[in-house]
Amino acid sequence: MGKWSSILCPRIQSRLDKEKEKAAYCTVMPSSDSLFNVRHILDQVNVDLVANTCSCRKWNMVGIPCCHAIACIYFQNKVAEDYVDVCYKVETYVKAYSGLIPPLEGERYWPRVPCNLDPPPIKIGPGRPRKNRIKHPLEYPKKTGSLTRSGIEMTCSICNSKGHNKRGCPDKGSAAATEP
User: Fold this and answer.
1) 43 - beta bridge partners?
2) Long-range contacts made by residues 141-148, C-beta under 8 angstroms, separation at least 24?
3) Average model confidence (pLDDT) for the chain?
4) Which single residue of 23, 56, 114, 157 could bond 71 by disulfide (Cβ 3.0 to 4.6 Å)?
């Protein structure tokens, strides 16, 4: 980061550049020196450059000016990089990582803790524990010789037609019962 020539960090600079491209499609209508009404495609938002806020709330949440705010900044002939939050600047980044982290000794030299650290107790749910997992209906059975009945069409034992069984047969009451 010491070699970086820009005021902002590289990723933040690229995000700001994308917003600058979108700012070309914004129409700025000034209300005062710091308040603006901006139209962008079908949106109409309010921008306050003193409070660093936009009614689209992107600038408020992220800290990087949105395309509406950048259009207002350009309208006043100012630089957009000055309105980016301080946490994204290279100076802040260098300050954050300028301190040294002292080396740590191995685990063998760590101080001993007098209390016993046990894992939390195991909670056993009510009821009998499940012996096997519940299998999917189309999953292979345990026995290799048996076949599943999936895909077989039902046949009625009363009227001998396919598509229903004896229980849902329309001829249930009218047909004569066959004797065994």
Assistant:
1) 40
2) none
3) 88
4) 23
User: At 69, is the secondary structure helix, strand, or coil?
Assistant: helix
What digits encode the pLDDT tens for the residues 42-71? 989 999 999 999 999 999 999 999 999 999
For 77-126, give the secondary structure using H, E and C.
Answer: CCCHHHHCCHHHEHHHHHHHCCCCCCCCCCHHHCCCCCCCCCCCCCCCCC
Structure tokens at 125: 């749910």
Alpha carbon distance 180, 171 (integer Å):
19
Contacts with 65 (C-beta within 8 Å, 6 or more apart), sequence order: 16, 19, 52, 54, 59, 73, 80, 83, 84
Give the model's confidence band at 147: pLDDT under 50 very low, under 70 low, under 90 confident, else very high: low
**Every domain of the chain and the residues it spans:** 10-96
Token digits of residue 27: 């129409």
Cβ-proximal residues to 67 (8 Å cutoff; 6+ apart), any chain: 19, 20, 22, 23, 25, 26, 40
Count CB neighbours of 95 within 10 A.
10
State the angle between helix axes of 10-23 and 67-75 in degrees (0 to 180), rounded to the nearest 10: 70
Q: Which helix (H) or strand (E) holds 67?
A: helix 67-75
Q: If DSSP codes are grouped into helix, strand and coil, which group holds residue 16?
A: helix
C-alpha to C-alpha distances, 159 to 109, 149, 180, nearest whole angstrom:
86, 22, 16
Q: What is d(CA 70, CA 180) in angstroms, rounded to the nearest whole number? A: 92
